[in-house]
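> forwarded from #structure-qc
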């Protein structure tokens, strides 16, 4: 069964065409038929598409909106023969926020689109791109090919109340659906399932800490295959320090900045989402690679940004060791977690007390590959597992279709 998996960011669209088994197992690399990325949506950007049959397309162009981005993808897929009646069977969309309503992958219809529209106020920066892509895909395909939405928040529906609730007036919390939803669920699920496969431990017996470290960053404590705590909360702004997001701050700071700077809350929210984190502290970049190079050249602000980033991740690992009463493993994923040995080393440095020790040679060679990077005698194994959200989207899509037959 061929599935088109679509994953939208704030100005990007990634896709993969995956030939997945009917039973919905995680697909293998050889089952990836085509993939691509559209960048700079809403401005000057570019496209980079490639298929297993050696068909490729790469160019820098201006892309007005998600409707145009989706059309570029479908035009190319049609040109290389992937949209014939016997080819594409379904489309799966990653949606960041499912709120309280969507707790499992869901077939998309008009009612679901309307419900997703209602949820946009909970995640305006993250749900709107997915919703635009869903509408654009629907306009092109009509009802001929089913579409499924799979949600980042679903994995965290298992959070106990002590971890999901805020210590605020509960009438307000209920009225405005305020709780800790958690995000990056597809990424944490992938790391969990690959860890279980690598170690031959049943998912329901796992007790691990997963770290999704990229432009957005989050950590999750997993017990018996279920999320029991996670660093992101009501929005993806809470938690760890990120590329341009601040993570945890004193809740009084936004009000303080509104008063002192004479701006509205929307402006401050934009600062916290787009001008903070690694970019805000370093004053130069949100890209960890650039900051590592700047640190080598003596940039103290870049060095501080990296130090703060690693410190906050290490502090979160310590907290989750307490939540889980120890852990069986720590797993790194995401662009930084998968490709920056120096960051992994600094995060884990000084954690010998709990049995978490990195092997320098194994860590250095683990760049974008599945590896165990802890020492042989480490009590807590440490793994690098490159995240493949498209695999989860495709598998969820197949399982949802089977469930609704």
């Amino acid at each position: 069964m061929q599935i088109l998996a679509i994953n939208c960011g704030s100005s990007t669209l990634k896709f993969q065409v995956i030939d997945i088994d009917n039973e919905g197992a995680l697909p293998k690399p050889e089952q990836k038929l085509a993939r691509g990325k559209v960048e700079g949506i809403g401005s000057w950007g570019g496209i980079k598409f490639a298929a297993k049959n050696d068909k490729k397309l790469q160019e820098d162009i201006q892309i007005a909106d998600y409707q145009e981005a989706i059309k570029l993808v479908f035009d190319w897929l049609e040109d290389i023969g992937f949209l014939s009646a016997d080819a594409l069977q379904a489309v799966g969309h990653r949606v960041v926020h499912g709120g309280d309503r969507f707790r499992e992958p869901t077939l998309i219809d008009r009612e679901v689109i309307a419900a997703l529209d209602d949820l946009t106020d909970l995640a305006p920066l993250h749900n709107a791109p997915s919703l635009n892509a869903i509408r654009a895909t629907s306009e092109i395909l009509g009802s001929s090919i089913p579409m499924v939405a799979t949600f980042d928040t679903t994995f965290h529906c298992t959070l106990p109340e002590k971890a999901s609730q805020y210590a605020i007036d509960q009438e307000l919390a209920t009225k405005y659906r305020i709780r800790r939803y958690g995000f990056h669920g597809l990424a944490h699920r992938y790391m969990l399932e690959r860890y279980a496969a690598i170690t031959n431990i049943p998912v329901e017996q796992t007790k691990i800490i997963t770290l999704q470290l990229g432009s957005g960053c989050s950590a999750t404590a997993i017990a018996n295959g279920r999320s029991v705590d996670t660093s992101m909360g009501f929005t993806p702004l809470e938690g760890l320090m990120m590329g341009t997001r601040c993570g945890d701050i004193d809740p009084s700071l936004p009000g303080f900045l509104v008063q002192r700077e004479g701006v509205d809350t929307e402006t401050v929210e934009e600062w916290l989402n787009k001008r903070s984190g690694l970019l805000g502290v370093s004053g130069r970049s949100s890209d960890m690679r650039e900051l590592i190079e700047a640190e080598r050249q003596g940039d103290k602000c870049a060095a501080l940004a990296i130090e703060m980033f690693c410190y906050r991740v290490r502090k979160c690992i310590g907290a989750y060791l307490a939540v889980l009463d120890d852990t069986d493993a720590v797993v790194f994923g995401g662009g930084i977690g998968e490709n920056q040995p120096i960051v992994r080393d600094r995060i884990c440095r000084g954690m010998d007390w709990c049995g978490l020790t990195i092997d320098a040679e194994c860590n250095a060679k683990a760049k974008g590959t599945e590896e165990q990077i802890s020492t042989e005698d480490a009590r807590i194994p440490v793994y690098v597992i490159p995240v493949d959200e498209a695999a989860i989207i495709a598998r969820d899509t197949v399982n949802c279709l089977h469930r609704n037959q």
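QC bot note: Residues 300-324 form the longest helix (25 residues). The first strand starts at residue 2 and ends at 8.
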